[in-house]
Amino acid sequence: MTICERHSGGRILCIRLSGLGDVVHALNALSLLRRERPDAHIAWLVEDRFRGLLRGHPCIDELIGVPRGAWTAMAKNPLRWWGLGSELRQFGLRLRRAKFDISVDFQSSLKSAWLVLAAGAELRVGFGRGVNREFNLLIQNRLVRAPRTGVHRIERDLALLAPLGIPTRYAGPVLPVSRADGEAMDRALAGRLTDGPMVVIHPGTSKSAAFKRWDPGRYARVADRLVAERSADVVLSYGPQEKELAEEVLGLMRRRGVLAPPTENLQQLTCLLSRADLFIGSDTGPMHVASALQVPVVALFGPKDPVQTGPYCGRSIVVTAPVDCRPCTKRRCSHVRCMRNITPTRVAQAALDLLDGGGRCPAVDGLIRKPMTMGFRLGRWQGQIATCYSRPEFYARLCDPDAIISASDAKVIRAGQSRCSASVPASVEGPVERFFVKRYYPKRGLYYKLGDLLMKPRARNSWDCARRLLMAGIPVPFHVCYMEKGRGWGRHQLLIAEDVTGVRGLCDWLAPDGPSHWSCAPHMAKREALGRAAALVRGLHSAGFYHADLRANNVLIRPRGSTPETFIVDIDRMKRVGWLPPLLRDIFYGVDLRRFAQSLKVRLTVAEAARFFRDYCRGFIREPHRQRVIRDIVLRSPRGSAGRRKRSLWLARTEPQQGGKGAAV
User: Fold this and answer.
1) What are the start-end ranges of the E strands in 203-294?
2) Which residues contact 479 (CB under 8 A, 6 or more apart)?
């Protein structure tokens, strides 16, 4: 499938030029690449100022420094432009002579694009739209699509190895440390610390990220409390041009603190942080270094999103402020309320919890199931696949899509003229046991053919909607692969998703003989069940989607302890309506609710129906007139006696029940 699959080794060029935190994030992908391709020759391109961090790295065979500082100084002087052009040409020739087979561009920006072109690798891997910047995708020939938000930078970098046949899974980073630097740091700290836990506080940031800094006086208050309650050795670390800030924090402390010894290079900083029992700081490079070393971290996050750039590899607690304007992408801010509203009490309590063994580690061993995909082609079939399933064994199975459904171990669920569905063994590692495969055949009839031409085909629409719903936190079965062959009216499609086992439909769950025993269930159990169903529909609509077939049988429930898991299935016809005006959106939402209410096989009281509607509107639809529009659509009576019986779920608007107190829907 790829060059690395044809050759066990190969020459691979990895590009991550800057900054410190981003280089550290890419080290997880480097560890995974070396583990999966032990015989490959791996070269790494990095700017000179960060070259010391990777010096002597066991996973890198060739470290190439980019003298960006010298080139920038030459570019500012027109008299040196000729020499700059000569140096750039010589550097490009050096990359071309190395004859790299693959280039993996973690930077994916303009300053890395010319390096990719200069290397001239046969397989050039980069990010697709959303993550890729400055038209870098135009020079790549294999793109990985990753969402801009909702996934960590480390997970995105790991997904970039999918075109090499390497599934997206976590791999611990390696930060090299020379023996000389370690001994120098030990000598500098000797005699300055006691037997208490060593807490490193890094109050500074770079000049361009000064809006992420926290008040020095508050750092001092946190440090005093740690010394008083844990007898901690507080060490104030600093980077270039940050020593005055560290000294200010030290001067404001009422108890004993220590100024960190000066670090001559990044590996000495790594040595210092590796000896810490706790790190406290904002969103900076040293924080990411500490997390990569699995040092417990208290991270103070103001404007940035901790889901994307927070601590990942070790135990951590992220402290944020409850302000509406965060997270944001601004570089400058006049008020910085997101940092000012972080209190010393919360930071100190988080530090104490981590010292007592608390905190959470986002990194989990195994496949990372996030909606990150890549394109591929197998003969006449082409499509997209989730990066966590990008492995040669899975591709080999996809080479004959017709045999997937017709295999002897496949269980055909539905077969018809337009679609065939089957459940087949997964044959992959992990908790997934089976896949659910749908094969779509060309439809007959002019109406359906025009629909496929004017709109997305059902399989492709289901694939795209599933990715967006997963990013919005709406539980749907994880979609694995989408394939198609042919064009227009003669298009064949194949959709593979993880099969959710051990589930029951909502109707069966609420039936008199079902697990919920609705007719004899206690009041609180009914209230929780209605709340879960309302939250699921509310999440679907708040994400801006209209299901078009939201029936109770399309809501699956899997018992997991005291809180069952819920899933929405059959999203082939789902449409995104979030771009429509509010009135039109409310009409679509009301139709969904009406169909869902009519499909339930249990009789709810007026109070229960009203509670469901209130739970649905909570935090989503606040305007009374919008609530009335949706309610009127739900209460619209279908024709005939059968329709009136279905409408009995939502009995009346405000009329009281006979023999009881009424409630408004």
Assistant:
1) 233-236, 258-259, 278-282
2) 371, 386, 462, 463, 466, 467, 495, 496, 497, 498
* Dihedral class, residue 241 (left if φ above 0, else alpha if ψ from -120 to 50, else beta): left
Q: pTM to 2 decimals?
A: 0.89
Between 273 and 515, the more confident residue is: 273
- Determine contact, residues 424/437, Cβ cutoff 8 Å: yes
Residue 511 tokens read as 């039936």
Q: Are strands 575-576 and 555-558 parallel, antiparallel or unpaired?
A: unpaired
Distance between CA atoms of 287 and 291, rounded to whole angstroms?
6
Buried b (16+ CB within 10 A) or exposed e, 395-410: bebbeebeebbeeeeb
Cβ(173)–Cβ(291) under 8 Å? Answer: no
Q: Which residue has better confidence, 662 or 417?
A: 417
Q: How far apart are CA 325 and CA 177, in angstroms?
A: 40
In terms of Cα–Cα distance, which of 294, 288, 257 is closest to 274?
Answer: 294
Amino acid at position 147, single letter: P
Euclidean distance between CA atoms 180 and 11, whole angstroms: 31
pLDDT of residue 645: 44
Q: What is the pLDDT of residue 612?
A: 86
Task: Name the DSSP letter for residue 600.
Answer: -
Cβ neighbors of 507 (< 8 A, separation 6 or more) are 552, 553, 599, 600, 601
pLDDT at position 647 over 50: no
Q: Residues near 278 by Cβ (< 8 Å), separated by ≥ 6? A: 197, 198, 199, 200, 232, 295, 296, 297, 298, 351, 354, 355
- Measure the CA–CA gap between 637 and 625, rounded to whole angstroms: 20
In tens, the pLDDT along 334-377 reads 788 888 899 999 999 999 999 999 999 999 888 899 999 999 88
- Which two three-digit tokens encode residue 265? 């290079």
